[in-house]
Every structure is written in C-alpha cells, then in structure tokens.
Design a protein that fits this description.
heterodimer; A: about 230 residues; alpha/beta; 4-stranded antiparallel sheet; globular; B: about 300 residues; alpha+beta; Alpha-Beta Plaits; 10 helices
C-alpha cells in the first residue's frame, strides 16, 4: 500500500536531515506505529505520504503509484484516499460537529443525499451520534479528536495518517481513541500513527518503526516502544 | 468537479460580509478610479465629436447684409475670387439658405413656419486653401471690413482652445485614473489576501481532505470579481450622472458646438461596458495574484 525507497528530506536551515535514506514497505490493512523522540522525523514521514511535503530524493509509492510523478491537479485525488488526524484536531470552531464532518464531503463535491446519510452514520460510529449539533468548544478533548477522526474517515479512505492523536489526551481518553482507530483498521484501512506514548504502543503490540535523527533504526512486527 | 452554485454563493457571500470595512473600501476605490476613467473617456469622445465637426467645417461663412446691393455683393465676390488664399467660394441664395434651414429644423415645424425666405440673409461659403487657423482669422478680419458684409463666422479659434483644454483635462484624468487603478488592484489583492488569511483553517482542512484547487480558489476569485463589478457598477452610475449634467448644461447653453459632449445612451453603453470589463479585470487580477501567491497547491 505504501512504499518508501531511499527517501531523504531536508528542511532548509537545518543541518540534520529530517528523513535520511528511509526504506519502508507497509501492506494494505496494516497498523503501524512510528516511534521516536521529537524531531526524529515521524511527522515528516507522514507528511510525505499525502504530499504535504516533497522528498529531496528517493521515491514514494502509494497504492502502487509513484506519487512523485503525480501532477499538481491530481494531488487532491490522492488526498481523498488518505485521511489525516492531528494532535490539535484542526476542527473549524464556527461549525458544529455535523458540519465539520460534512465539510469534508461538501468540498470534494459529494452529492447532498450522500452527505445526509454518511455523516450521521460516521458520527454514530465514533460515538458522537447525539452531539452533532454541538460546537467544538463545547466538547472535551477526546470528543474533539473523535470528530476529527470522523472527518478523516467519512470518505472511507484507504489510508489513515494519525500524527500524535493522543498527544493532548489523558491515558483513559487515549485508550478510547485507540479502540476507535483499531476499529477503523479492522475495516481494512491502513493506519499509520506517530506516537511517543509508550503505554499505548506497548499495549497494542503492532508493527513498530522507530526513527532516530531521521533514520529508521528499527522495524519490528508486533513490537514495543523500546 | 462539481462546484455547486449554492456553495459558491454562500462562500462568496460570507467572504464579502466578513470584513465590511475592507469590502466597502475596495468597492469605493474601484468605483472612484473607474469613474475617473469613465469621465476621461466621456470627455475624449466629446472632443473627438467636436473635431469631426470642425474638420467638416474648415470653411467660413461671409454673411451679407440683408439689404446689400448687388454691387456690394459683386465686390465681395471679386475679392474672394482674386485672393490666392481662397480655394473656392460659393454664393448661397436666400432659397438655398431657406432649404438648409428647413432641413436643419425639420423636427420643429413651428420654428420653420415662423421664417420666411425673404427675411433670410444671403452668404458666401468660403473654403480657404489651408485650413490653418491664423489664415482664416486674417481673412475673416479682412472681409469683415468690406461694405455689405454683416459678419464673418468661423469656429476655429474657440474650438482650438477648447480642444487643447479638454485634451489636457482628459489626459490628467487618464493619468490619475491609471494611478488609482493600480491602487485599487493592490487593495483588491490585499482584500483577497485578508480573506484567505481569515479562512486559512478552512483552506488547510480543504487541502487535507482533497478539495480540488479550483474548488478552493474559485470562491476567492469570485469575491474579487464581485467586488470589481460592484465598484464598476457605481462608476457607471457616476458616468451616466455626469453625462446628464453635461447634457443639461449643453441644452441650456443653446450652442450647437457643444452638442458632441452630450452623449446619447447608445454612445454611453460602450463606455459602461468597458468600465464593467475593467472592474472585472481588476477583481480577477487582484484576486488571482493573491490566490496564486498564498494558495500554493
């Protein structure tokens, strides 16, 4: 599903590479943790997959296609197949839960009747079926992250990228979010999650790719944080 | 890529009311600069009309006293024929004058009815060898002194002065208009940039979920177009208003000479169209630059 070949990315003004000669092959339906300290290249890894960043060298394949060869106007099509969830949720404060989720479908031109049926269903799935009229500021952090997951998943993407989705949440709430991501993974969606939450990584026992200073130092099936 | 009309209207409308002071400033700047441009065009086309008239009209007219004797007429005729500065001259009889008069006033039968051919003067239509104003002026002064000559009519001097004055005025207006058009384009650019900044969260999410570039951009381009066209609409009203004022004062002045400055509606429409196109162009250019600068794919 996702393949990195000798991918290197440097940011201007920084001496160390954010990602150096990274090779990885992630199969359809896998759940992969990216672990490592801050600045080790986890976010860069994720941002390269949905073309928020371009690599300096190397090739990246998504669903068999070299995304480096993708013309600009096709990038949106790539992103429709890749949901993204962030530590800071990125919800729109002036829109309700339901509107935040339907926004993702509206802006890719989905017909109204599709939006009308899919949005309540996905809100139900993430456990917010009865809170669709609320605004983000009326929700807890865990609930806001569920809205953001609903928005990322409402278009049924092949891949879900999660950058520290539990970073702002207490352990109990984080477990709830992990259960949700696990459920989404079980529908066949490939999930890649950057985390430095040792407890979560150790409990889930999934594939772990460890980054250090931009290099992949460990790639282990059913791994632990360290 | 289906871009729904209701979505577009909603987004564009929201952008327009989100920052009313900037919206108003942008519309007014566009309106003022285009009004200047429109006024300059209005005056130009008035001057052009005036020149067409004048070029048709290099001849001057030597009006004879109504009771001039035939001897006096032939003295004037001989003087005209002998002068090397005169290419051609033609004697206009009372009947011919009356016929012209009838043609000129054909829409006003009451005026026509009040004039009898016997009461009209005769004249010479004179075409000088050179349409040079100074030559015409000297000739006019010369013939005015001959016995039996009542008046020598020529429009030259006045037209020349008016011409240079209006040319200068409209050039100044065009330069000012050009400057303020640049200013309004820059303000447009800033206005759209502010809209982009205000909506950066939405734009970020739209990019992440895979909205197409055109879907993200079109509402902002539309905002620019709407602002530009509304501004242009005000400038069209201003130009129509100015034309009405000019028309009224031309009518009051009762001098046919200025008629070309009072444009007909049909002459105004091309100017109005140009202003609307210019307004849309300011909007498209300003917002296009802003969107390209701040919405890299």
């Amino acid at each position: 599903m996702i393949k990195l070949e000798k991918v290197t990315k440097e940011y201007p003004g920084q001496t160390a590479a954010a990602l150096k000669d990274a090779d990885a092959d992630i199969a359809k339906g896998e759940f992969v943790f990216l672990v490592g300290p801050s600045g080790s290249g986890k976010s860069t890894f994720l941002r390269l997959i949905n073309k928020q960043e371009e690599p300096d060298s190397g090739r990246i394949f998504v669903a068999g296609k070299d995304i480096g060869k993708l013309s600009n106007w096709k990038v949106p099509m790539l992103r429709r197949n890749i949901g993204a969830v962030f530590q800071d949720y990125k919800l729109l404060p002036t829109r309700t839960v339901g509107e935040n989720v339907s926004f993702a479908l509206e802006v890719i031109g989905r017909p109204r009747h599709v939006i009308g049926s899919q949005v309540p269903a996905i809100c139900e799935l993430v456990g917010l079926g009865d809170q669709m009229e609320k605004y983000p500021h009326q929700l807890s952090g865990g609930e806001q992250q569920r809205v953001s997951i609903a928005r990322a998943f409402v278009n049924r993407p092949l891949i879900l990228l999660a950058d520290e989705p539990t970073g702002n949440l207490d352990p109990q709430t984080a477990i709830g979010i992990m259960r949700l991501l696990d459920r989404i993974n079980k529908t066949g969606t490939t999930v890649i999650m950057a985390s430095h939450d040792r407890g979560i990584v150790d409990t889930m026992r999934r594939r772990v790719i460890e980054l250090s200073g931009g290099e992949i130092v460990r790639d282990q099936a059913r791994g632990v944080y360290e | 890529m289906a871009l729904r009309v209701d979505y577009l209207a909603k987004e564009t409308g929201y952008n327009l009311i989100r920052n009313p002071s900037l919206t108003i400033a942008t519309v007014l700047t566009v309106a003022v600069s285009l009004a200047l441009l429109g006024s300059a065009l209005l005056i130009r086309s008035g001057v052009d009309g005036l020149n067409v008239r004048f070029q048709d009209d290099v001849e001057f007219i030597v009006w004879l006293d109504r009771d001039a004797t035939s001897e006096q007429v032939s003295i004037v005729e001989r003087a005209l024929n002998d002068s090397p500065l005169i290419a051609d001259s033609r004697y206009i009889t009372r009947q011919e004058t009356f016929a012209e008069f009838q043609e000129f006033w054909q829409d006003s039968p009451e005026i026509m009815a009040s004039v009898e051919p016997e009461r009209l003067p005769t004249s010479f239509r004179v075409i000088p060898t050179e349409p040079d104003l100074e030559v015409v002026e000297a000739l006019a002064a010369e013939y005015r002194l001959l016995p039996g000559v009542k008046e020598v009519d020529f429009a030259g001097e006045f037209i020349k002065q008016l011409n240079s004055f209006t040319r200068t005025a409209s050039t100044i207006m065009l330069v000012t208009a050009a400057g303020s058009l640049v200013a309004s384009s820059l303000l447009m650019y800033n206005s759209i940039r502010t809209a982009l900044f205000a909506r950066r969260r939405e734009v970020e999410v739209m990019k992440l979920v895979g909205a197409s570039n055109s879907f993200i951009r079109i509402p902002f381009i539309m905002e620019g177009l709407v602002l530009g066209v509304i501004g242009a609409g005000f400038s069209v009203l201003a130009v129509f208003g100015l034309n009405r004022v000019i028309t009224r004062s031309v009518e009051e002045a009762e001098i046919g000479l200025f008629d070309s400055f009072a444009l007909q509606q049909s002459d105004l429409l091309p100017i109005a169209l140009w202003l609307l196109v210019a307004g849309a162009a300011i909007g498209a250019v300003g917002s296009g630059f802003a969107v390209n600068r701040y919405l890299d794919a």
